[in-house]
Amino acid sequence: MYEHIGTAFERRVDGEVLRVEPSGANAVRVRAAADAIDSEPFWALEPPAETPEAAVTIRQDGTARLTNGRITVEADAAGRLRFLRTVDGGELLADKRPYMWHPGPRVHAALGDGGYHLEQIFEAYDGERIYGLGQHLHGRFDQKGCVIDLEQGNTRVAIPFLYSSRGYGLLWNNPAIGRVELGADATRWVAERARQVDYWITAGDTPAQVMAAYADATGHTPLLPEWASGFWQSKLRYRTQDELLAVAREYKRRGLPLSVIVCDFFHWPKMGDWDFDRRDWPDPAAMVEELDALGVKLAVSVWPTVDPDSTSHEPLRAIGGLVRDGHGGLVRQPWPAHGDDGYVPMAYFDATDPAARRYLWDRLRANYLDLGVAAFWLDACEPDLAPEPARRAVYAAGPGTQVGNAYGLFQARAVAEGLAEAGHERPLSLIRSAWAGSQRYGAALWSGDIEATFASLATQIRAGLNVAMSGIPWWNTDIGGFQGGDPQDPAYREVLIRWFQYGTFSPIMRLHGDREPRQPFTATMSGGPNEVWSYGEQAYPILREHLLLRERLRPYLHQLAQAAHDTGAPVMRPLLFGFPADSGSWDVDDQFLLGPDLLVAPVAEPGARERPVYLPRHEAGWIDAATGAVRRGGETVNAAAPLERIPVFVREGSPMADTRFYQS
């Protein structure tokens, strides 16, 4: 029934081939297909290191066993798999026991075009908690009981990796559109169209062990560039070179730290030109030179849309580098264009095509990098298509329903590989979409066009914790939210202040948004003011204080960047990551750790001037960063939260205990 092949075992029966093999230390990869298993592509996985210590046993009773470090797989005679802790045989996860006449834990339903509708069904466990799976706006940290759509969209990032409180991590290594159902009776992974079931699973005694194994399997994030840890200034949008430079000069005049300023969309003549429009940006080289003298990096927006009249449309079409439509022609969607054209149906660059990626990078290098711009904002790279054309899309890598979720990963790859070729060893791209493995290409994910409310802020806190448990160390939000917010409204100013405080302790600190008065979505739009001096006399000193605090935190952030690079440890961490033995830490979803030493409790309610804070059990204690008072761990305290600051505690005995956080 089972065959021992190298360090793997296979089972071949009518209607299915099943292969189980070691995949890095303490992990296994499972693939199953109706006919034959594809050896390529690896998708999110990097080719694993050799695992000579893995042991396979084929038994006379028709069962098999594979042991690889901390994880053991038992396969019964019917092809049902159980994943166990090697040390004690405890069950981590198992295929669902089939009901009478049920097809079994794996479903391969032929679609008639060479593809399959796939399902993988596992047992469910009472008390299990599930984290990760990317970024979703359901407002929950523990996602047990949710149905999570595996489909990219603005504000929705599908990363099919989860961490279970039972001590395992599982990657659904399949970029197909689908879903995962985290039910009380079963966990079901679904791919609308694919060739084979493909997943990777690892075991760990702690969340840190699981996340380290995941980083080894899917790639480690590059080291953070020095400039990226500071404050990023952005708005929708600076329309001209003079306007952008005036803002950078004003930060310098006021003595305010500024690391990055962003040149947003429609700075180009045509979408797909990937170049400055010289009518509004007459001398970008001089602009970059002046910004460099101010100690400021310029980041530029890059969209995947291609105007039919752009300089890139015909060259890309000639090499097959535009996304095709399964109904014929090219996938197109209307977007604003300069001039009198209004909305124009735009094509899409095919990020899955190596020649198209090469073409894109050649344009970015010639029009931006050669001027000194090495920071790219990869916007709308889900790609931002309506659901129906997204399903009709045909990429070089396959149909949209089969491969579309990986588009953002390939676009980040284009930039990372281009920067590496040009000698930049620390690529970083601000990006609105990501998939498993995006971290290895320097993806700095942000949460998209979110609402500018306290409720939205509360949702972001939990979403960010799940991104941390999805293997993406660098994550951020538009401080203040994106959709609206009136700088003259006292109620919104409070939202902005509280969000700015949260952003100070976020992995990336970036102020952005489409502020009032908002305008229709056109190529000439420019939102309201969004600089730190835009929010009145009460807010300004608070925001200034937090800018200076961020500067003091930057050396610590680069220590965390080294740890993320080396071990896969997230920069922003749920309490359960740092204190898994403390049961109380598993119940907290509105606080986070910034590295091992700082505990941050954001304020996400209007008018709140105090809030409860859980302090995890720690052998020493926790220092209140505002007062210096020491509190013991394992208890909830009622912490002061005046408008000027949010509660922050420092692990007693850590190097950060000597840091000056607040002036008063």
Structure description:
- The protein is α+β, with helices and mostly antiparallel strands.
- Helices cover 22% and strands 27% of the residues.
- Strands 1-2-3-4-18-15-14-12 form an eight-stranded antiparallel beta sheet, with helices on one face. It has an eight-stranded parallel beta sheet with strand order 31-30-29-26-21-20-19-32.
- Helix 3 links the parallel strand 20 and strand 21 (297-302).
- Helix 5 crosses helix 8 and helix 10 runs parallel beside helix 11 (536-567).
What is the tally of helical segments?
Answer: 12
Residue-averaged pLDDT:
97
Query: How many DSSP-defined strands?
Result: 40
**Termini Cα gap:** 72 Å
Shape: globular
State the strand order across the main sheet: 1-2-3-4-18-15-14-12
Beta-strand content estimate: 25-35%
Radius of gyration over all CA atoms, rounded: 25 Å
* Sheet of most strands: 8 strands, antiparallel
What would you call the structural class?
A: alpha+beta
Instruction: Give the low-pLDDT segments.
Output: none
In helices, the fraction of residues equals 10-25%
